[in-house]
Amino acid sequence: MSAAPTSPKAPAISKEQAEAIYSRGLEGIIAGETAVCSIEQGGLWYRGYEIHDLAQNATFEEVAFVLLEGHKPSPAELARFKAEIVAERPLHPMVTSFIESAGGYLASGRAVPMDVLRTAVSILAHTDPDAQSVDNAANLRKAKRLLAKIPTIIGHMQNVIDGRAIIGRELGGDPTLGHAANLMYLMNGEKPNKDYARVIDVSLILYAEHDYNASTFTSRVIAGTLSDMHGAVAGAIAALKGPLHGGANEAAMEMLKEIMHDVGERAIGTKAVDDWMQKAFDTKRKLMGFGHRVYKNGDHRAPILHKMGRAIAEKDTKNPGGHAAVKWFELGEQVQKIMLDKKTIHPNVDFPCGMTYFTMGIPVPQYTPIFVASRITGWCAHIIEQHANNRIIRPLSKYTGEAPRKW
Ligand code: CMC
């Protein structure tokens, strides 16, 4: 009988060591390295640039460049990057006709925009000449195409939902508009005013990147098998959709609408809202837009967006006197205070996002797709980083099943 093969290499971590560091939901576990982003209780940095600094002084295109290309762009680099994105905005007819064919399902609510977007991204792969390559240059070209085309997909979806002619079929919008303003324009044919365009732009900056969050981790796991960028992004979209992750911006607004419906507008500021919240606590309901795995003392992004959203709500032009829009912020602020007083749980960025996008008249089912339009930059930066220095991501599990037994 021949000897059993000897292991060429002992495992880097023994079973006992692995069990000792096990943590449910991977809480507190470092699952990989990255130079793209760092988040701590005390701050959030994209490639070393702090989030308040970026929200105040950068544009989304500049942030996208920093994330994808790795450094702050010179004026010439930025101009070239913007031109490349504008040129890549139109969709292949295969993608447009899919969105049109899904129109009835989207309009009736049987298909949701996040799912249609996920499928559209998969179809984009079939039209991309670099689809199967995972080298750096091909990945960067694909990342720019995805960045450029996702707003066009979102716009086309909204057009078929609303039953209007597709805006931007030939050009993917208005080439004179920046990324954020064009996204709004593609959705309803109206060029946003400067305030709205900047608020959307900042929301895209805030959503762009967040290290090993669930969707980014998903994209790295897929990329780690040396599978392609479009597949990794489709998986990331599926992960982002969940209400515990990106889907929370839609769920947070739906929750506020539910409270408003149950207590009535006149009850804002009164005990009726406390009573609604108490019932939620008693039934152990998860309040959407609150809590965070990493930030226990508050999400740095939330106050930035809250302040900007409230400012446009206060001078909202669509609702005379600003009252109709600002009431959502008044209700939201009361809900936040109750959460903090009773549960010591802070809002995350999805909470003000819901109220802000609602103020701007954006349909709720498009909030998470807009999150995708931003986070595509972070995902692609991570996929590029994973492919460039790859080791398959293959953790262990803690077995809780039956002891070995005979069949
Ligand atoms: N509502 C009510 N209770 C909550 C909430 C909440 N939103 N968040 C946390 N808790 C409770 C939780 O039930 C737990 O209670 P207990 O100890 O009695 O079981 C306690 O607070 C500690 O929770 P945790 O361990 O900090 O939560 P986690 O790290 O496992 O989950 C989370 C983080 C974000 C999934 C969770 O806070 C949550 O479900 N929030 C609501 C959904 C949401 O807003 N998601 C967006 C996340 S941030 C931005 C993004 O990814 O888009």
Explain what you see.
By secondary structure, the protein is mainly alpha-helical. The protein has two domains: 37-242 and 364-388, Citrate Synthase, domain 1, CATH 1.10.580.10; 248-359, Cytochrome p450-Terp, domain 2, CATH 1.10.230.10. It contains 18 helices and three strands. It has helices at 15-21, 51-57, 60-69, 75-87, 93-101, 103-108, 113-127, 136-162, 179-188, 194-207, 214-223, 229-241, 248-263, 271-282, 301-314, 323-343, 350-359, 367-388; strands at residues 37-40, 43-46, 49-50. Strands 1-2-3 form a three-stranded antiparallel beta sheet. α2 (51-57) runs antiparallel to α10 (194-207) and α7 (113-127) runs antiparallel to α12 (229-241). It is globular. The relative contact order is 0.13. The model has no long low-confidence stretch (mean pLDDT 95). The site of carboxymethyl coenzyme *A (CMC) has 18 residues, from loops.
